[in-house]
């Protein structure tokens, strides 16, 4: 998670090691399911696709071993690995560090009240945290599409954002795909 490793997609049952995965594949084949449909299900729910070797760098086997790993590394290891994450200041790794620091340094994140906003919105997850004299608004566009935000709050300070921009009036702003931010708002 800390470097954004993704699940490994399997296309042949010989790539699986988990006995439950192998048994399920064989059971469903016997029941007449199409192999393609079974792999779609397995790639969504199997344990093996998340049990790949740690992706340390872009060398053979993702730098995990000089031998043969029990299961192959994900094919994306040349791009997603620890060495790349440490080299990029805006990587998921450093974002995790910032989020951990925010939690440690701000009692609001631990003790603050939680108020869900926009519970019916199909793509925006938004909530407020309030504690003592402070209130934060946390917003995430969980979509690959731009989304209009309809909140009457006015941001007074950006706490963290995955886009390089400042926030002010939040009503009517257009969120970029997967844009996520936390801002301080008037209490």
Structure, explained:
This protein has 2 domains: 13-87, no CATH class; 107-185, Immunoglobulin-like, CATH 2.60.40.1180. It is built from 5 helices and 7 strands, in the order αααααβββββββ. It has 187 residues and is α+β, with helices and mostly antiparallel strands. A hairpin with a 6-residue loop joins strand 1 (113-117) and strand 2 (124-131). The strands form 2 sheets. Strands 1-2-3-7-5 form a 5-stranded antiparallel sheet. Strands 4-6 form a two-stranded antiparallel sheet. Helices cover 26% and strands 20% of the residues. The protein is elongated. The two termini are 34 Å apart. The chain has helices at 19-30, 35-45, 82-87, 92-105, 107-111, and strands at 113-117, 124-131, 134-141, 147-148, 155-161, 174-175, 180-185. The model has no long low-confidence stretch (mean pLDDT 93).
- Helix fraction bin: 25-40%
The amount of beta strand, in percent, is 15-25%
**Whole-number mean pLDDT:** 93
CATH architecture classification name of the largest domain: Sandwich
Report low-confidence residues grouped into runs of 5 or more.
none
Biggest pleated sheet: 5 strands, antiparallel
Name the CATH superfamily classification of the largest domain. Golgi alpha-mannosidase II
Oligomer: single chain
Q: End-to-end distance, in Å?
A: 34 Å
- CATH fold node name of the largest domain: Immunoglobulin-like
Instruction: Give the tally of structural domains.
Output: 2
Give the helices and strands as they follow along the chain: HHHHHEEEEEEE
What does the overall shape look like? elongated
Number of strands: 7
């Amino acid at each position: 998670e800390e470097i954004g490793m993704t699940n490994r997609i399997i296309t042949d049952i010989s790539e699986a090691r988990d006995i439950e995965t192998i048994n399920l594949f064989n059971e469903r084949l016997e029941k007449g399911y199409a192999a393609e449909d079974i792999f779609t299900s397995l790639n969504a729910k199997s344990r093996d696709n998340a049990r790949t070797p740690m992706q340390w760098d872009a060398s053979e086997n993702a730098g995990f071993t000089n031998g043969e790993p029990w299961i192959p590394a994900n094919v994306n290891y040349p791009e997603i690995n620890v060495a790349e994450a440490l080299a990029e200041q805006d990587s998921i790794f450093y974002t995790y560090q910032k989020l951990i620091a925010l939690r440690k340094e701000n009692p609001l994140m631990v003790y603050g009240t939680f108020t869900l906003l926009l519970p019916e919105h199909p793509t925006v997850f938004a909530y407020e945290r309030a504690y003592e004299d402070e209130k934060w608004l946390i917003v995430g566009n969980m979509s690959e599409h731009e989304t209009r935000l309809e909140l009457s709050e006015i941001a007074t300070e950006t706490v963290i954002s995955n886009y390089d921009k400042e926030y002010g009036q939040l009503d009517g702003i257009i969120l970029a795909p997967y844009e996520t931010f936390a801002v301080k708002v008037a209490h």
